[in-house]
Amino acid sequence: MTVRGFAVAMASLIVTGCASVAPKPTAVESEAQIKWRQHHAQVASVDQWDLSGRIGVRTTDTGASANLRWKLDNGRDQIDLFGPFGGGRIRLNIDPDGAHLRDGKGREFFAASASEVLFKATGWHVPLEVLGYWVRGVPASGEHSMEIDDIGRLTSLSQRGWDITFHQYAPYKEVSLPRKIRLSASAETLSKLTARDEFSGDLLVVKLYIDEWDPSPDDTEIDQ
Asked: What's the number of domains the chain is made of?
């Protein structure tokens, strides 16, 4: 074969090879995924609320509960807990500078994070840093896995060492927000808490029951 003939043959093989590579199919969103994107955009705009409900924490050996009042306005949280959970009334204020807690006996606690100051005062672990996302039925930033229902709402979420299940939603201000949420600490989270001598056992569950939402509509996405 001549040099020219060889070159023509190689060119033909290259063209044939390129033609045989089929383009990758474009991923098609399901109807539920489209509804999830729409729902997420709507819920993410809720950056003010005044909710009331109940919170409970259960471990292998014990448990406690309290009535809950949670106000969020201009990036500042005020959480009030009433009942056995805190031995009276607890007020927790959270802002970009840190967290401050005052218990029913007038004692004050300070920490860099809300979950840390709550643990100092009560001995209970609640992931307050990300709860503002989960309580609205959306993931916080970062890696996660999730499942949605047919109308685009979260049914389960795994993130930040917790497995979250959303049992019930209710409409508030034309937005569908959770009413019943269950958080279960993963085995890895339990191991970390145990290594810090902050926990013992194989069960840590937090339950939220939201009786009433009163979110204020705002077009600005929350940034906690």
From this structure: 1
Lay out the sheet containing 175-185: strands in order across: 108-111, 98-102, 88-95, 76-83, 63-73, 49-59, 204-212, 175-185, 162-172, 154-159, 145-148
Stated pTM of the model: 0.82
Structural domain harbouring 118: 31-212
DSSP letter for each residue of 50-110: EEEEEEEEEESS-EEEEEEEEEEETTEEEEEEEETTTTEEEEEEEETTEEEEE-TTS-EEE
- Provide the CATH number for the domain around residue 99: 2.50.20.10
CA of 164: how far to CAs of 89, 138, 171, 184, in Å? 27, 11, 20, 6
- pLDDT tens sequence across 140-187: 999 999 999 999 999 999 999 999 999 999 988 788 999 999 999 999
Which residue, among 93, 124, 125, 95, has the nearest Cα to 109 in the 3D structure? 93
Calpha distance 69→107 (Å, rounded): 20
Cβ atoms of 207 and 219 closer than 8 Å: no
Q: Is residue 183 part of a domain?
A: yes
- Give the residue, 2 or 213, on which the prediction is more confident: 213
**Residue 222: inside a domain, yes or no?**
no
Digit-coded pLDDT (tens) for 13-36: 444 444 445 555 556 789 999 999
User: Amino acid identity, residue 89?
Assistant: R
